[in-house]
Amino acid sequence: MTSTVTSPELAALYSAHRLGLVRLAVLLVDDVASAEDVVQDAFVSFSHNSRRLTDPDAALGYLRACVVNGARSMIRRRQVARKYQHLSLQPDVAGADDGVLLAEEQRKVLRALHRLPDRQREVLVLRYWSNLSEAQIAEALGISRGAVKSHTSRGMRRLGALLGVSR
Amino acid sequence: MSREMEDRLRAAYQAKAAQVTDRRLAQLRAERDSQLATLFSEDVPIARLEQPPVHLDSRRQRHSRWFAPAIAAAAVAAVAAAAFALTSTGSHRVTPAPPASHASSSTASASPSVSSSPSGTASSSPSAGPGYLPAGQTGARDDVPWSKVGAGWQLIQPLVQDNPSHTLYLYDPAGGRYLIFDQVPNSATLVAWSPDGQRAMFQTYSGDYNRLQELDLHTGELAAGFTQYQGSFVSYTQPRGLAVIVDAQVQGAARLLRYGTDGTMQLIYPPGVSAGGPLTTDVLYSADGSQFVASLSQHPELISNGGQLVRRYPLPRPTDTVCQPLKWWTADSFLEACGHTVSGAFPDSLYLQPITGEAPTPLTPQGTQVSSDYDEAWPLSNGDVLLQRAAGCGVSHYDILHPDQTIVPLRMPAGVSDPTRIVSMDGDLATFDVLKGGSCGGNGANDALINYDMVTGKTSTLLNSYANVMGYPGD
Known about the structure:
Chain A is mainly alpha-helical. Chain A is built from 7 helices and no strands.
């Protein structure tokens, strides 16, 4: 049984979830422009594959997985570009008129997060930002629940070390 | 310390995400559209077109989606070669890897770390005996002494660089192993050992579809399996595993579905019944398979195999907002983790819930310094209980709860100083995933699977890598 997500449904999905997905992507790729590209790609992919869906209401999980995969690819392209182009791609800074500026503590934590391996960073974002369950994280990343537990443990362990947290 | 780190992490995420507003995105889009219009103007010198390919690649993609294709084609002609040369390699591909290193060290600590002798009626922990391969040896599937396979045996699928390998081993309690299968499909993950001990279940995610395939452990035949949309394997049914329970999204809500192992859908369970939770994703089947305990968003419920609600269980404290069933404790009670969860926080106290519905009782003494934050427990053969809680740096801490309600730290043997969790438990034989080497933060540390017999104090390293592990069904 298949159905196609209609244009109004796609627009409604976009309206409802775009901002949240961009925020998720920002926590993975760090700059807003790249994050928005990742989310746009996810919606394009979704619109192309929507006819395979048996339940159009279950789109968020698909979109989330696309965003995580797209963010990982974006980071790798960025790393390759740095290698060949000697670029220094700086993360976006908040606009001067933005009301929310990061405190030093928060910047410190975010800098430490960027030193984690991709998988650990992804698991921590999905766990502590998206508040996904272990099963949902496993589904979004295509890994086992055991691997989710392990990445969470090791990510927190490494984060603690980078922030100088003692046991 | 772990909770403090979680709070710091959430605060950092929330602050960073709060910078992303509709206004900011609109501003950014206006800036980029202005830059694009300038960049692709016919008046722009060639030098200006030689912008960083990565940025142009992303802009080009956006441009082609949101503007006339002709404009995008002109941009592609200018920068396509450089941009395509820098595209990523795409998704993970698991390449066949040699079997993970198979260690065979076996040491005995100076003294056991649990109370001395097991009770007379309890079964002793499995140990090396007749019919077991010596630790470090690998045999063939045809050599497996199937009549001896039982408690203490494990199915283990090593991971290679965090990806499931193509190999599946059957380990005996002595640490010897048999190669059962070496053609596990790419990215297929071991998720279960059937209740009758005959089959292993593998699950492969494809982003939106989930494929389940059974492997006959005796013959090595892998079934074609079936696909299921946006769900994940939860459990075999009992007592023989003739069907499986899958947790899937149905019309936007998490539902449990039952499929025959041939992929025939048999039943969709009532709304609100799900297996999801912060600690585990499972249902607790009765031994005869006629009913199971599953968790709602708050209350555990006893559900008949046909989908009828039998009983809803109470939350133990007024402040609790969730209880999640973890395992059967006795024939007529189950262990659950309860707590007041604030958007994603773990439950923090363990209780025993009688199956008949009476009020649950706390497993650990209340009001003590270390009564909370335990997230798992295992009964030991001498009447003690092994308790687990998260410690700093992502490792786990283990304590022993004596029958008189005193709690003492479990003295970990040499080589098991940084356990992240117990991956399998059979009686008094625990298989730990540990980080060997390095310090807090894991710099230079590698995963290892280590068996620790808490009665004899003996340890043995099963594998110098992380792995997917399934203990013998019924452990």
